[in-house]
Design goal:
Low-confidence stretches: none
Distance between the termini: 38 Å
Largest sheet: 7 strands, mixed
CATH superfamily of the largest domain: Nucleotide-binding domain of ferredoxin-NADP reductase (FNR) module
Mean pLDDT: 91
Number of strands: 17
Shape: globular
Structural class: alpha/beta
CATH class of the largest domain: Alpha Beta
Helix content: 10-25%
Number of domains: 2
């Protein structure tokens, strides 16, 4: 397939979003859908999956948190530097209903901001952003432009409401305020949102993060339950998540070994 052939692109723009997050733009003629990802090759490193945070058919952007060797090398790039890109890949978010909630933990707000911006004014969107501290909240202003309301929470109380982002979410789920909930962030957060949506019988979709090596569903590194997350996902709905025994409990490292979250 054409989208599976890696091509070389120049970095056309870099935006410093926070102390640890940069957004990288590329002149990219393929229109990605919110929730899809690309496989990014940085010279000297192996390919890594990156969620798309912006795409209009002319430019594509990814937003990266400097957290490991690959993303630190990405952060060292300058405008004009070359990278390899395959994609867009994977299944996107699917709109269901007229009143929705988007729930983001940390840099999970990047693909959800893209999703909210694509929906238009006839969809009523409420955004819930959670992070450990104020400096880790991302894309609040983007979401304010696209959403009816934005609720921020921080673990340390440095901004917005103090506590977990699921706390204000549950108050509105109890009132059946939303048709569908969309969540992206640490899998512990996604599992908590899933449990709430099961409790109140609300449709939901989550974007799962796994080790992606091929991005084509061939190598099996990203398998969870019966799903190849790189091709069947990364976005899965509530029914699909219900069938993944490891969801929120276990992941696999690069060698394929199962490990508990947090270990």
């Amino acid at each position: 397939m054409e989208f599976d052939v890696e091509k070389t692109y120049k970095v056309s723009e870099i935006r410093q979003e926070t102390d640890k997050v940069k957004t990288f733009f590329f002149d990219f003629s393929k229109k990605a859908k919110p929730g899809q990802f690309i496989m990014l090759w940085i010279p000297g490193r192996e390919e890594v999956p990156m969620s798309v945070s912006y795409s209009d058919g002319k430019r594509l952007a990814i937003s990266a948190f400097a957290v490991g060797e690959s993303t630190e090398k990405l952060h060292a790039l300058q405008v004009g530097d070359l990278v390899g890109i395959r994609g867009p890949l994977g299944n996107p978010w699917k709109l269901s209903g007229k009143k929705i909630a988007v729930v983001a933990g940390g840099y999970g707000s990047a693909p959800l901001a893209f999703f909210a911006e694509e929906l238009g004014n006839d969809i009523e969107i409420s955004a819930f952003l959670g992070a450990r501290t104020k400096d880790l909240l991302l894309f609040e202003e983007r979401l304010k432009k696209a959403c009816k309301k934005v609720i921020c929470t921080t673990d340390d109380g440095s901004y917005g409401e103090k506590g977990l982002v699921t706390e204000p979410l549950e108050k509105l789920l109890q009132k059946k305020e939303f048709d569908t909930v969309y969540v992206c962030g640490p899998e512990g957060l996604e599992k908590s949102v899933f449990d709430l949506c099961e409790k109140y019988d609300i449709a939901m979709q989550a974007s799962l993060e796994r080790i992606f090596k091929c991005g084509l569903g061939i190598c099996g590194a990203c398998v969870a339950g019966k799903y190849r997350i790189c091709t069947d996902g990364p976005v899965l709905d509530r029914e699909q998540l219900r069938g993944i025994e490891d969801f929120g409990k276990f992941s696999r490292d690069k060698a394929g070994r199962k490990k508990k979250y947090g270990s």
